Amino acid sequence: MGTRRGGRGWQRTAAALCAAVLVATIPGCIGPPEPPDPDKPAAIALLEAFSSRMVDDGAPAVLFAVTSGGDTWTHAAGVRNLAAREAATVADPVHVGTITESMVAVSVLKLVEEGRLDLDGQASDYLPEFGAVLKPPGPVSVRQLLTHESGLPDFSLPLLASGRWEELAGRPLSLEQQLGLAATRPWDGRLARIFDYSRSNYAALALIVERLRGQDIGRVLAADIAGPLGLTATTLGGPRPAGMVHGYVTIEGTPQDAAAPAWLAEAPSNGAVSTVQEVNRFYAALLQGRLLDPDTVTAMKGGYSQYYGFALRRWNNTCNNRFYYGLPGDVDGYGTVAMTSEDGSKQLAMTVAYPPGPPTLGVNPVLFEMQDVAQEAMNSLC
After folding, report:
1. Would you tell me how many other CB atoms lie within 10 Å of the CB of residue 323?
2. pLDDT tens sequence across 351-377
3. Structure confidence at residue 108 as a pLDDT band (50, 70, 90)
4. Is the C or the N end of the chain the one with fewer CB within 10 Å?
5. What is the pLDDT of residue 275?
6. Checking phi first, is residue 69 left (phi over 0); if not, alpha (psi -120 to 50) or beta?
């Protein structure tokens, strides 16, 4: 299903009876092909073609929202879950994976703006147990945690080695436990000083935020981001929201529901739930300086030669030789890509509930393809 709202007031709703994901599973459910839409930008046609291919490949659902020049296009294909097979909608919540880190970084930087946190201060200044438990081979700054340049081991490695995926999915994991697992792995002896992704960095940052605010990280994100922006579907922790799109992983040939693994409930690296529309609203507010001071936003983007700033990465914007900012987000069962122009006026957020496959420590290859398609679509909207 796709819709557009904008200056020309055009709107299209795809036939609900024979959604693409159901055509292949309901014999005889074959409707006439939709006529070409002369008003549809090439970008939207590209994204819809990618969505159709993903659903054909077994993706339970694909959702996207695009804004450009005052116009908005939304799209939903597939189903909320493989059991009930209700049609997915663009307003359905999804796991947004690593996009969670951009939200946590905002809360960290708000404390910096308030003078309560020093980016170049040592993590152990705010977490006395950091040195005693994690035993880093040298000083680790808050800035290094933000940019994944600390060398802190990733807790996911010992977590996945500790049991079967089905067992881990039902096991809550506190921030302290995440860092305790990280402590069982050796540090990178170089203290890398280069980008070296580790989920443990944001577990440490979230714990620092909790200590300084006196609230759990989910409540802090609600106060700093979701509340001020009216993001009613954006949460970290708490019960699974109604109408959520379910992602799946395959265990011994059987799809397993990945919509509510308990260990993600307090995962500031990749545990947030949101919608593609609310993800766009978050990044627009961030880049337009409505969540942080403009100078802080500039620092968050990183230097010109940096791949990753403070939980923001960038892609080339060939429309003006500048950049799009956002993050790709990967987590079991789901991939999300969010790109926003520097002024927040042009945006794309897209989620694919991955075709079910085995859980993996690495990034699902579909996410790389999503980024390529998203960047091509954005650059065709010049």
Report:
1. 18
2. 999 999 988 778 999 999 999 999 999
3. very high
4. C
5. 98
6. left
Single-letter amino acid, residue 348: L
Retrieve residue 119's tokens: 């980016």
Phi and psi at 236, nearest 5°, equal: -130, 115
pLDDT digits 0-9 by tens, 275-334: 999 999 999 999 999 999 999 999 999 987 677 899 999 999 999 999 999 999 999 999
pLDDT of residue 30: 42
Supply 151's token pair.
């060398």
Contact 80, 265 (CB under 8 A): no
What secondary structure letter does DSSP report for 244?
Answer: P
Nearest to 183 by CA among 148, 166, 158: 158
Q: Which amino acid is at 219?
A: R
CA 374 – CA 352 distance, rounded (Å): 12
Tokens of 134: 């994690």
Give the separation between CA 126 and CA 348, rounded to whole angstroms: 37
Q: Structure pTM?
A: 0.90
Query: What pLDDT is attached to residue 54?
Result: 98
**Would you say 104 and 213 are in contact if contact means Cβ atoms under 8 Å apart?**
no
Give which of 362, 118, 360, 80 is closest to 243, Cα–Cα. 80
User: DSSP string spanning 159-198?
Assistant: HHHTS-HHHHHT----HHHHHHHHTTS---TT---S----
To the nearest 10°, report the CA torsion of 373, 317, 63, 24.
-20
C-alpha–C-alpha distance, residues 137 and 182, integer Å: 14
Judge residue 194's burial from the number of C-beta atoms within 10 Å of its C-beta, 0-12 exposed, 13-18 middle, 19 or more buried.
Answer: exposed
- According to the model, what pLDDT value does residue 37 have? 64
Residues β-bridged to residue 61? 78, 353
Q: How far is CA 187 from CA 140, 205, 235, 270, in A?
A: 12, 18, 32, 22
Token pair in block for residue 90:
């663009």
- Number of neighbouring beta carbons within 10 Å of residue 352: 31
User: How far, in Å, CA of 110 to CA of 131, rounded?
Assistant: 25
Residue 361, φ and ψ in degrees, nearest 5: -75, -30
